[in-house]
Amino acid sequence: MDTPPTQNSKIDARDLTIRSVRPADFEEIAALASLPGYRWGTLRLPYPSPEETRKWIESKTSVADASLVVVYDGKIVGNGGFGRYQGRRAHAAMLGMGIHDDYRGRGVGSHLLREILVLADDWHDLKRVELTVYTDNAPAIALYERNGFVIEGTHKAFAYREGAFVDAYAMARLKP
Q: Where do the N-acetyltransferase domain residues begin and end (predicted)?
């Protein structure tokens, strides 16, 4: 398929492959992170270099972390995962994820988040998964709430984005 699905079409989970990040993925992930919609919902700065992305991937060697990509028709259309905390916070992890601009609202994020939570619950025995999300990112907030996350507080002036400071919610999900 050469073009992304139509505006409202959902992508069948059987057409997606979710797998671990590979070192060879660095250029596609750098291109993904450069997209304006993807970047808008993250703390990433514009124009990440492929070399920086390669180094980031290579640093994700801990078995305490999970780094995944979503592949659709041979193209990486999303990535995400978690980093487990250490010591007295080893029961918790910080989640992050992002979806290609052309594939948002089509179920890709739902499939990725469910897979991340399966890893957290069934393989890493995490009690708590945390995240931050900009308060104006209604689709992401709705996705997280559908998957058991609750807002625990608000970080005022959390990040600088497009010339202004924006707030973010602290959200968490306790293992059911």
A: 16-176
Q: pTM to 2 decimals?
A: 0.91
Would you state the pLDDT for residue 64? 81
Identify the pLDDT of residue 39: 94
- Mean pLDDT for each 10-residue chunk of the chain (176 residues)? 56 95 95 94 89 88 87 97 96 97 96 97 97 97 98 98 97 94
- Closest of 166, 40, 171, 39 to residue 113, by C-alpha: 171
The residue type at 63: V
Q: In the chain, what are the domain boundaries? A: 14-174
The first and second tokens of residue 171, run together, are 């959200």
Long-range CB pairs of 91-97 (<8 Å, 24+ gap) are 91/126, 91/127, 91/128, 92/126, 92/127, 92/128, 92/129, 92/130, 93/64, 93/120, 93/124, 93/126, 93/128, 93/129, 93/130, 94/129, 94/130, 94/131, 95/120, 95/129, 95/130, 95/131, 96/42, 96/131
- DSSP string over 87-127: GGGTTEEEEEEEE-GGGTTTTHHHHHHHHHHHIIIIIS--S
